Amino acid sequence: MNAATINPHEAAHFGALAADWWDPHGSSAMLHKLNPVRLAYIREQIDTHWHVDARERQPLAGKRALDVGCGAGLLAEPLARMGAAVTGVDAAPENIAVAKGHAAGQGLAISYFSGELAALPAGQFDLVTSMEVVEHVADPAAFIGELAARLAPGGLMILSTPNRTIASKLLLVEAAERIGAVPRGTHDWDHFLKPEELTKLIADAGLEAFGRTGLSPSAAKGFKLGGSEALNYLLAARHAE
């Protein structure tokens, strides 16, 4: 039996935000600011992993990509534009409904599913992404194991998540929710993972982590890659040799 990873409370929380997911000034405004920075990291890892020219417009052509915890498609759509055959999975059916509608309006063919990752039709993917998700699941170890099981040989996995530090508690949870930068109840600081904790879960799933970098605030752009990992970090993983 596969362990359940969906936290029903978390799914309901994000499902309630589905309607304005694509509004850059709405409840998902923070994600709209994060997304370009995350995409820059993803593109860098893709180019390095598969030896792609940085000028190539479709570096994922001929590859399959899976975005887990896809929300309404904020990352899935750029992956599709990079040439991938994309599948998105989310715990909230409300998000999937919005994702399907938005992709259709953009002329993008993306396969979307709602529910447990383990219930997805069998298959593996060259690229597996899951951004700001592991801190919301019921069983992080089982979740990482499910992600690893979906990663094809020679594939690339990319994750991002908040760090469990005093800084993240003060800024990402207490301050951000108090001023309305993110909806109240979005984060539970106790569920944040330190880099060494996430790295161990990845190793236990048979993968090796690499390329970790901080994702930190920037006065000019909102967020930037590099610098402190105190608030948030990204890392990549591949099959251990």
Please tell me about this protein's structure.
With 241 residues, the chain is of the alpha/beta class. The protein has one domain (8-239): 3-Layer(aba) Sandwich (Rossmann fold), CATH 3.40.50.150. The protein has seven helices and eight strands; from the N terminus they run ααβαβαββαβααβββ. The protein has helices at residues 8-15, 29-50, 76-81, 93-105, 140-149, 166-179, 195-204, and strands at 64-68, 85-90, 111-114, 125-131, 151-162, 207-218, 222-225, 232-239. An eight-stranded mixed sheet has the order 3-2-1-4-5-8-6-7. Helix 5 (140-149) links the parallel strand 4 and strand 5. The longest helix has 22 residues, at 29-50. The relative contact order is 0.15. The model has no long low-confidence stretch (mean pLDDT 90).
Helix content: 25-40%
Rounded mean pLDDT score: 90
Which structural class best describes the helix and strand composition? alpha/beta
Radius of gyration: 17 Å
Quick one: CATH class?
A: Alpha Beta
The strand count comes to: 8
CATH architecture: 3-Layer(aba) Sandwich
Strand order of the largest sheet: 3-2-1-4-5-8-6-7
Q: How many discrete structural domains?
A: 1
Q: Which fold name is given in CATH as the topology?
A: Rossmann fold
| Measured distance between first and last alpha carbons | 28 Å
Strand content is 15-25%
Keywords:
Rossmann fold, alpha/beta, eight-stranded mixed beta sheet, 7 helices, 241 residues
What secondary-structure arrangement, pairings included, does this model have?
Blueprint: H1 8-15, H2 29-50, E1 64-68, H3 76-81, E2 85-90, H4 93-105, E3 111-114, E4 125-131, H5 140-149, E5 151-162, H6 166-179, H7 195-204, E6 207-218, E7 222-225, E8 232-239
Parallel strand pairs: 1-2, 1-4, 2-3, 4-5
Antiparallel strand pairs: 5-8, 6-7, 6-8
